[in-house]
């Protein structure tokens, strides 16, 4: 009976130790993820009638003219003494803000036939981003061979890179640029990054 107990105890200790060893081999890091904002088109049903009785209408602020950049002429110097006023002007690119209006809108097209549709571009946040805990390559596992694979993959994608097997500043910056281009969490060499680079 003691022998069976001893064997069982040994197996339990081995499983616990191996489990702890496996847990320690997985490293995590605090990486930053930028918010993912997408521009989508939203259709509004604008009520064009005069009597809203029995209709579910609400006042909605809608962009009727999108924001834009425009080349305009501006006076460059108050002290310009040229007899020709055109000499005192300079062309500058200026941000023209969007024009909005409050309009009566319907929840859908099935309430009345007295409506027009207007589509506007709106920005929606798909992912708020922030600091995230991500699985990373443990420092002890960042061998020269692995780093060279990462550098080769980045070089093939057009990143300025020297394949030297060293996790230098240029490599870290290129990894960060690659991660941001893929809308991934950035700040360290994550397992997700290796997968995206096709490195096993």
Give the helices and strands, then pairings.
Layout: H1 2-24, E1 27-33, E2 36-47, E3 57-65, E4 68-75, E5 89-96, E6 99-106, E7 115-127, E8 130-136, H2 144-156, H3 169-181, H4 191-196
Antiparallel strand pairs: 1-8, 2-6, 2-7, 3-6, 4-5
Question: Which series of helices and strands comes N to C?
Answer: HEEEEEEEEHHH
- The outline comes out as flat
Helix content: 25-40%
Class computed from helices, strands and strand pairing: alpha+beta
User: What is the end-to-end distance?
Assistant: 47 Å
Mean pLDDT: 84
Using only CA atoms, what is the Rg?
31 Å
**How many extended strands?**
8
Parts with pLDDT < 50 across at least 5 consecutive residues: 3-24
| Tally of contiguous helical segments | 4
Q: Beta-sheet strand percentage?
A: 35-45%
Strand order of the largest sheet: 3-6-2-7
Biggest β-sheet strands, sense, barrel: 4 strands, antiparallel
């Amino acid at each position: 009976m003691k022998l069976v107990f001893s064997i069982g105890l040994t197996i339990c200790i081995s499983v616990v130790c191996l489990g702890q060893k496996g847990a320690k081999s997985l490293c995590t890091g605090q990486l930053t993820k930028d918010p993912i904002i997408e521009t989508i088109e939203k259709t509004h049903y604008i009520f064009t009638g005069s009597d809203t009785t029995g209709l579910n209408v609400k006042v909605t602020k809608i962009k009727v003219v999108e924001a834009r950049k425009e080349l305009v002429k501006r006076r460059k110097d108050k002290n310009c003494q040229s007899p020709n006023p055109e000499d005192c002007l300079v062309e500058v690119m200026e941000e023209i803000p969007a024009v909005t209006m409050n309009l009566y809108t319907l929840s859908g097209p099935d309430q009345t036939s007295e409506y027009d549709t207007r589509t506007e571009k709106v920005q929606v946040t798909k992912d708020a981003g922030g600091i995230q805990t991500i699985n990373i390559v443990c420092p002890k596992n960042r061998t020269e061979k692995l780093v060279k694979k990462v550098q080769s993959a980045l070089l093939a994608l057009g990143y300025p890179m020297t394949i030297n097997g060293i996790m230098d500043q240029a490599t870290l910056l290129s990894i960060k640029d690659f991660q941001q281009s893929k809308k991934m969490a950035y700040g360290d060499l994550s397992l997700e990054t290796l997968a995206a680079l096709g490195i096993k």
